[in-house]
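If you are new to this repository, start here. Below is one unmodified record pulled from the training split, so you can see the exact layout before writing a loader.
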Amino acid sequence: MKNNSDDDTWSSLRTKKPKKNAVTISPVKPNIRLLILVVLGLLTIGIYSQVLRHDFVSFDDTVNIQTNPHITRGLSLTEIRWAFTHLYDGNWIPLTWISHMAAVQIFGLHAGGHLLINLILHLLSAFLLLTLLEKLTGKFWPSAFTAALFALHPLHVESVAWVSERKDVLSGLFFILTLHAYTDYVRTFFLSSPNAFVGDPIKNLGFPTKNCGNDNPNESSKSGMTHQNRSYLVALLFFGLGLMAKPMIMTLPVIFFLLDYWPLAKYRHCEESRRDDAAISKQQSEIASPPARNEIMEKIPFFLLSAGSATLTYLAHQSQGWINTTQTVSLKIRIANAGLSAVKYLRKTLWPSDLAVFYPYDAPQSILLYGSLALAALGIITFLAIKFRARFPWLLTGWLWYLVMLAPVIEIISFAGFSMADRYTYLPSIGIYIVIAWSGAALAEKWPQKLPWIRKAATTSIAVASLFTFTQVSYWQNTETLFKHALDVTQNNFIAHENLAELYTKAGDLNRAAFHYENSAMIRPNAATLNNLATTYFRQGKWERAEQIYQSIVKQDPSQALSWNNLGQVYKEKKKFREAGNYFARAITADPKMISAYAGMAEALLEQKRLDEAAALIQRILHQYPNNQDLLKLFEKIKERTDS
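And here is the target side for that same chain:
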């Protein structure tokens, strides 16, 4: 049989007569196909090439890459073992950690090199998505349009231009590779003979053989079994690797069912084979397993991998305190926000404006109202997709692809403190692109005279998306540009204020740091932010304002050791050493391991000329921390005072 994508369609492989919803092919010349791929590659590289000059950002990059000793030491067996045996920062993603280690091994801590790897992975995924969709449907132009939107859509900037989101582009690559292998596995059902639907996907695991009316199932099994088993196992391997990059793809087995419906039409082809093949024997009918049962059985190993990944993810999130935190945000709010976020993602997919690295929750009243409307809208769209599935099968597959892939990150069970995130659309949005692309193709087939307008609309949408993406990439240049933009396009963004405040604090710009801490504290007052604000005031010499804030913190929560310690520092600067010593003592009571509080108390005793007490305190704490240089220096200072 000729292996050519221009005539390699499911309908032509299955039967000689036209079938309902059969794939039709518009031949594309090889040079045109190559040109489209080159243009797509050059456009993507041109837009994203600016990331080579970008820096790490303080949001996750510092913790995950720059100050993570397991990453900064590069590749080694010890660190690879760590990647597989530890939950870190709320994740079990060993493959992603290993990829970061490899990047450090090659580029050191040069952010541009790390982002280059992200870009390469993203571009490979776009090319593979194009070939996958063409292999599935036989249609090049809708496949190319879908791949172009995937490569160039602004919502995907966060996944590519953020070093910490290596997990998105890496898991995305294995996600698409898994679908390629699954497609090859399914193709063996049709390639074995014109009327064959034969398979033994996991022969050695005891799952039933399926047969939909093959004249000689044993012969077909011999001819097609080896390749089929190989494709199946490769799909399992790729899926496992993808889960080790990011567990979000755990819903991929459900995507198999959607592709089985359209464009593979496995169940329909099987039923047609049973009806059309009059030569099927009674014996063959008896050994044939029900198609629905077989479709489930072949996917069980994938669901088992998903279950394992989900369990590890749950444990990792629990270690961060992200599970069962309904006292922070109620379950009712989370469900409403889930519906609202799904609609917002859809809106940003169709018109990608006001994109930010962090989206805070809206007011609870707004979430409940608009979230309820959003859930109703999602229900209506789902109902229409099901109702018109016979005429527009791609609508059901694409829409459910979108909803199913969003499910793991919709923030109902787990809670990370934000209402939504652009990176969560990286793979779910493919479903929406499929709906748009194949709806456009259907319009072109129904009204050929509209084809020029459809082409113009497609070209314009890609051009507009490219312009938006180029601008969005520029915001990821560094921490300052990223969070300034977030403040411009969102409201009450306390995370943006806090990150800018930390940035300006490190730069010594205390006025701007205080401004952003003040704004963050007004939006979401909490001990950490208030303490940072008071410390900024203290460094500015505004001791009275700093003291007021510290006092308010410990009054509300006496266990705040850091604030007690900082009160001691304020009174030490005021030369009120007795009061300072009392505050340091309260800090030690709240946190017996706070070394700075011991040092502060010893200095307060020293200034009161209580040298013996100061020396005894330092000696006692030095037994626990014998190598602490600050304590050693202070002890020498006390000895000098004593000797003099």
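Two things worth knowing about this chain: Residues 1-25, 192-224, 276-290 have pLDDT under 50 and may be disordered. The first helix runs from residue 10 to 14.
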